[in-house]
Amino acid sequence: MMRSLQSRLVVTLSACALGLAIVAGFVSYASAFREAYRFQDDQLLQLAALVDTRNLAGADSAMHGLPVEDHDYRLTVQRLGGTFPVTLADGFHTVSTGEHTWRAFVRTIAPDLRIVVAQPTEGRNEIARNSGVRTALPFVGFVPLLIGAIVLTVRRAWRPVQRLADDVDTRRDTDLRGLDAQGAPTEIEPFIVSINRLLARLAKALDEQRRFVADAAHELRSPVTALVIQSENLDRALDPVPLDTETRHRLTKLKSGLRRTRALLEQLLTLARAQSAPTVAATPLTLLPAVHEALEDVFVLADRKQIVLDLVDTSQAAPGRPILCVMGAKRDIVTLLSNLVGNAVRYTPVGGAVGVRLSATATDVVIDVIDSGPGIDADKRERVFDAFYRASDQREARDHGGEGTGLGLAIVRAIVERLGGRVTLHDASPTPPRGLHVRVTLPNPDTARRGHDAAGSPVH
Hints:
Elements: H1 5-50, H2 56-64, E1 76-79, E2 91-96, E3 101-110, E4 113-120, H3 121-169, H4 189-237, H5 245-275, E5 284-286, H6 287-304, E6 308-313, E7 325-327, H7 330-347, E8 353-360, E9 364-371, H8 408-418, E10 422-427, E11 436-443, H9 445-456
Parallel strand pairs: 6-8
Antiparallel strand pairs: 1-4, 2-3, 3-4, 5-7, 8-9, 9-11, 10-11
Helix pairs in contact: 1-3, 4-5, 5-8, 6-7, 7-8
Keywords: Kinase, Membrane, Phosphoprotein, Transferase, Transmembrane, Transmembrane helix, Two-component regulatory system
Pfam families: HATPase_c, HisKA
GO cellular component, one term: plasma membrane
């Protein structure tokens, strides 16, 4: 059974049209056949009325002498008693003479004179059949046209539904706005209303979840920060006191765990802010200072691991090019770049390199962050954007001067999607170590501004 309503409608309506066309064709064929047969009978009757009985034999000989191309179409006029038996009553008869079957009309001229006007049924039937076929033939061409019209009509009727489906498919994961029912068929409006109610409930639930995470992280940040400070004070207080190796190791683990907990809470708060809708309209922001600030945040870790940080702004290499700008708040851009560059530094081995490339196209601003670390397998690149997911043990950074929380790329994707951009992952090199190439594409505000100016400029 077909699950597609569109296909079901097309097949059902096409089958109905085909069935009706077949019935109409047969009815037209039968009607035309009868009319042609009746017309030929009338010809026999009229010919019988016009026959000159004074020269009957000559008339029949003259008719046989006419240049008729097909013998089956010839007419014969003669007295009864020869080819046709004298027992035939007046009127129409179908008579078989052995060689042919005749359609005959018998007429009594005088008591001793009866004539017959006859024609072979082979020719008559062929004429009637041809007439019926020509009458029914238009239906053969009519059916494909009708089926084509049905297909086009059904597809056009379902176009609003397809547009609605395309709108849902192209939405981002965080876009939970209600569906626009304008232009949609009346039959699916209740379905759209139900979906909108579900989206509203889902948006409310997600908002409550984000608010709970943000509130919990905010409430835990102060006591955890206090514990970090107390652990550092305890370490300083016990520094002159000789401690055994196990106690010192436990104290170090305690400090490290508290620092990781504080970092996790900070990342949770950052993720909650990134997933929230902006409270003010985004304005153009110069990109390079935000990049410098993000690099300063990770410079200490990069220096400790002897990693080279390389920044290239290709837009400045071309004279006359405008300064790169993006639409967004500075805090979002710095957070985005800090997480990207921070991840790259954490997961790049000692002595490696991390490069940041800034460029622009006609419509986009592109930020490329490239490291020389172990990279991420292709089948795991989509999942690394999930919160707390780590691609592999290779991407752990605790042996290289830091430890990730599993929230960095989730924060990056949340910010990028809110700014209307996209983020993709690629291999930095085709050979091991493959490294990781993260490309962030954001809308170019210069393009939007030029389009707005062109649309709003007066026409002279």
